[in-house]
Amino acid sequence: MKIVKGDIVLLRAGKDVAALDSSKKAQGVRGKVIRVLTRTDKVVIEGVNMVTKHKKAGQAAGAAAIQQAQRIQMEAPVPVSRVMLICSNCDKPTRIGTQLRQDTRQLLVGDKSVVVRDRVCKKCKQVIRKPTDDRLRSG
């Protein structure tokens, strides 16, 4: 899947977009991807597609502690076909292309040449870095 956890995406269709007034519908709703569900081709976006889950009262672990019934607000998954990635360079919703490049990785026995697939913005032709790449390089 071309969208990964931590990406900023634009929701183009759904109940959150339908609730907007007509001038903002074309822009859609922006949010950060919390989780990617690859088996069902869905993503969970922070603060978008909120649903109410009712939790039943029951016994909690501990010494005679009773858990209270409650209503929990949580994000529901959205099909990945309804979202577009926001390019970090041009700050516009875009489709994603791929570009192959050679990279060398250092191993204990020596260097190894590997092929790396980069995500490329279709509008500005710049490489879109994955949020996980920043985390790995900072440490």
Count of folded domains: 1
Spatial order of the strands in the main sheet?
Answer: 8-3-2-1-9-10
At the first level of CATH, the class is Mainly Beta
So, CATH architecture? Answer: Roll
Q: Helix count?
A: 3
CA-atom Rg in angstroms = 20 Å
* Main pleated-sheet profile: 6 strands, antiparallel
The secondary-structure element order is EHHEEEEEEEEEEEEH
- Under CATH, the topology is which? SH3 type barrels
Shape call: flat
Mean pLDDT: 82
- Runs with pLDDT <50, length 5+? none
Tell me how many strands there are: 13
Distance linking N and C termini: 26 Å
Strand content: over 45%
Give the class from helix and strand content and strand pairing.
mainly beta
Share of residues in helices: 10-25%
Write the layout of secondary structure elements.
Layout (H helix, E strand, L loop, with lengths): L7 E4 L3 H4 L3 H4 L3 E9 L4 E4 L4 E6 L2 E2 L6 E2 L2 E6 L2 E2 L3 E4 L6 E2 L1 E11 L4 E11 L5 E2 L2 H8 L1
Antiparallel strand pairs: 1-2, 1-9, 2-3, 3-8, 4-7, 5-6, 9-10, 11-12, 12-13
List keywords for this structure.
3-stranded antiparallel sheet; flat; 6-stranded antiparallel sheet; 12% helix; mainly beta; 139 residues; SH3 type barrels
What do you see in this structure?
The chain is mainly β. It has a single domain, classed as SH3 type barrels (Roll). Helices cover 12% and strands 47% of the residues. It has helices spanning 15-18, 22-25, 131-138, and strands at residues 8-11, 29-37, 42-45, 50-55, 58-59, 66-67, 70-75, 78-79, 83-86, 93-94, 96-106, 111-121, 127-128. A 6-stranded antiparallel sheet has the order 8-3-2-1-9-10, with no helix packed on it. It has a 3-stranded antiparallel sheet with strand order 11-12-13, with no helix packed on it. The chain has a two-stranded antiparallel ribbon with strand order 4-7. The mean pLDDT is 82.
